[in-house]
Amino acid sequence: xxxxxxxxxxxxxxxxxxxxxxxxxxxxxxxxxxxxxxxxxxxxxxxxxxxxxxxxxxxxxxxxxxxxxxxxxxxxxxxxxxxxxxxxxxxxxxxxxxxxxxxxxxxxxxxxxxxxxxxxxxxxxxxxxxxxxxxxxxxxxxxxxxxxxxxxxxxxxxxxxxxxxxxxxxxxxxxxxxxxxxxxxxxxxxxxxxxxxxxxxxxxxxxxxxxxxxxxxxxxxxxxxxxxx
Length: 229
Description:
The protein is mainly α.
C-alpha cells in the first residue's frame, strides 16, 4: 500500500469514527441526562427543575469552561477514536490520559499521526475493559476487603496515588524542556500552597498554566528565530 492509499484509507477510517462516535456520544448523553427522570418517574419523585437549574448555574459555568479546555487539550493527544472512547467512558485525568501517553511513548508514535490514532484508541479501549473488570471484582470483593481498604495505615497511600502517578509521568516531560516547564510548575506550586482550595479545580487551572507554558515556548521560539536570522 503506497502513501496515497494509506492517506485515503485513514481519511475513510476517520470519517467512520466520527459518525460512530457522534451517534454513541448522543446515546450516552441521552442516557445520562434521562436516568434521573426515568428513576424519578418510577419512584414518583421527579427532580425539582428550578433547583437543578440553580445548581447548574452555580458550578456548571466553571465546569463548562474546564470541559472545553480539556477537549481542546486532550483531543489532539488522543485522536478521534481515542477521544470519543475517553470522553464517553470518563476518568481521563486519572486513567485514560496516562495510559494513552505511556502507550504512545512505548511505541514512539507522534501526536497527530495515524500511528498515534491507532495506539491511543487501542490503549484507551484496553484501559476501559480493564477498568470494568477491576470494578466488577471490586464489587464482588468489597465486603471481604473492607477492613483492608479502611485501614488507617493505608489511607495516606490511597490519598497520594494520583499525585504519585502524575508526578512520575510529568518528570519525563519536564526533563525534555526544563526552560518551558519550570515556570508553570513553580507558579502553580506556589499558588496551590497559598490557596489550597484550588486543588479541587485542577482541570480549570490548566488554562493559566497552559497559557504560561505556551507564552514561554513562544518567547524561546522567537529568540531562536532572531539568533538564526
